[in-house]
Amino acid sequence: MLVDIVLEVATTPRVALLARLALGALAGLVAAVVMDVPMGRQEGGFTPAYVAASVLRRTTPDEVSFRDANVVHHGAGLLAGVLYAVVLTASESVVPPVWSLGGVDLLAHLVAVGVVVGFIYGFFAYLVLPRAGRRIYEEQSTAVRGQWLRSSLVFGAALAVVAPFLLAFV
Fold it and tell me: 36 lies in which domain range?
């Protein structure tokens, strides 16, 4: 009986952290799906997804299928959601609490969203895009970066709304 109580107390923070990471991943996936809307409306809006998939597949963006681009795009959303949960958890221990929003502190939440949006934009625009096929980088890098910036901001807005709602259950 005492062992059960000790094990329950010892695992509760771990379970809470794992739940937070899983819900962060889900929030990132939802935000990536929401991000599909502006990407689909922009001319060449899915180019960033094709470019990212081409880097992972070590091929040119023209040789990447729509399915592969979508898998990479939504997988990146999942990972960005996990990053959000990690940054949020770290921020909550550093940033003074201001106001609770769905179970998370507003200021720590905004810091986490800002870090994630900055990271996903910078990672794609300055690491992935230059490594992709030289043709896109040389001919369309400014346009592709602009598309990615707009899409990243939509991702951040969706994450800012969805994450507190999901994390309220932890």
Answer: 2-167
